[in-house]
Design brief:
- Strand 12 and strand 13 form a beta hairpin.
- The model has no long low-confidence stretch (mean pLDDT about 95).
- About 40% of the residues lie in helices and about 15% in strands.
- The protein has 13 helices and 13 strands.
- With about 350 residues, the chain is α/β, with parallel strands linked by helices.
- Helix 2 crosses helix 11 and helix 8 crosses helix 11.
- The protein has a 7-stranded mixed sheet with strand order 2-8-7-6-5-3-4, sandwiched between helices.
Length: about 350
């Protein structure tokens, strides 16, 4: 199968697998795993933060960050199309008594400050209202096409949160994709957030793990919450070692993934029945079919022919490129799509 549903399907490199057998291990709950310490220090330095912590997953990383920032009964402001709001099972409400308030996500992924402002009561001393304590943003924005949030917008949003005396958390699962695309260091993006989460297991293609970075005091709070959530790990150097390799070698890999995405989009744009939905900024391609075709049938037919893609929103198909997709796979993808489209009409074809 050609796997384009997500870059979470990326497989670790040989160097990553080899690094596991050479990792210096210890009990990380006791702070004794030197490989984990090396990864955390490297990640903190790359994001310009005081400290960082290795987490088992991005979901736990975001959840622990929210719980560290938000007292019970307060609100976390999130984009209505954000992964935190849609895909992370309401964990902050379940585990921390924190209320999600969704803010409209614009087509380019931003949350307008005028819309964020509406989440604050006119009288913050009125005891009827839960008060916001955290704003979460997603950069790049997944469901809007992998859009990278402009630095000017991030700066304005950061200073707005200072005025409002709330924290700003960045779900930067693919922050290094954004940095590579903008040709700037990742710390230029991370500087506008109090805390940042990024995934090791997406485009970076390590097998497991995410990182949270922030102040040392904040990371100490996250460490305690990680333990409470069951995320304390023992000889976690076997996870950290591939993460170190990923960070050391990511630049070329991510650049290639972005090029592959642009190539796939260019080929797709030549197919009359397909419309590309957004400009290609990172490793994602979003497209739709003309109304006479069934998206469900199309995706099922593609899978029958050896291509896995996914519908992210009704009628919107996402293809995500990663290190295990070759140039030949892209050409094969186009041929499969061309075969699948005629069989995907709302009526007729093999589904009659």
């Amino acid at each position: 199968m050609i796997e384009l549903r997500s870059d979470t399907f990326s497989l670790p490199s040989v160097d990553m697998l080899n690094s596991i057998s050479k990792a210096i291990l210890g009990d990380d709950v006791y702070g004794l795993d030197l490989t984990v310490k090396e990864l955390e220090k490297k990640a903190a330095n790359m994001l310009g933060k005081e400290a960082a912590i290795l987490m088992p997953s991005g979901t736990m990383a975001n959840l622990a960050s929210i719980l560290a920032h938000c007292p019970r009964g307060s609100k976390v402001l999130v984009g209505d199309k954000s992964d935190i709001y849609i895909y992370e099972a309401g964990g902050a409400s379940v585990c921390g008594g924190v209320i999600y308030e969704p803010i409209k996500t614009e087509a380019d992924g931003i949350l307008k400050i005028s819309n964020v402002e509406k989440a604050f009561p006119i009288d913050i001393h009125d005891p009827q209202f839960a008060l916001p304590s955290l704003l979460c943003i997603e950069n790049p924005s997944n469901r809007t096409g992998g859009n990278i949030l402009p630095l000017g917008y991030l700066e304005e949003l950061f200073y707005y949160t200072r005025e409002k005396e709330i924290a700003l958390h960045m779900d930067g699962a693919r922050i290094f994709n954004a940095a590579i695309a903008l040709q700037i260091p990742a710390d230029r993006i991370a500087m506008y957030a109090d805390s940042v989460q990024f995934c090791l297991s997406k485009g970076l293609s390590a097998p497991i793990g995410s990182i949270v970075a922030g102040t040392e005091q904040f990371i100490n709070k996250v460490r305690r919450i990680r333990k409470m959530l069951g995320g304390g790990m023992r000889q976690a150097g076997i996870i950290a070692a591939p993460g170190i390799v990923a960070l050391d070698n990511m630049a070329q890999t991510l650049k290639k993934d972005h090029t592959k995405a642009k190539n796939l989009a260019r080929y797709l744009s030549l197919i009359d029945e397909i419309e590309i939905n957004a400009s290609i900024e990172i490793n994602m391609v979003f497209f739709t079919l003309k109304p006479e075709y069934s998206t469900d049938k199309f995706i099922t037919t593609c899978a029958m022919f050896g291509l896995n893609i996914d519908e992210l929103e009704p009628g919107v198909i996402r293809a995500v490129l990663h290190r295990n997709i070759s140039d030949e796979d892209i050409l094969d993808t186009i041929e499969i799509i061309k075969r699948a489209i005629p069989l995907s009409k709302q009526e007729g074809g093999i589904y009659r």
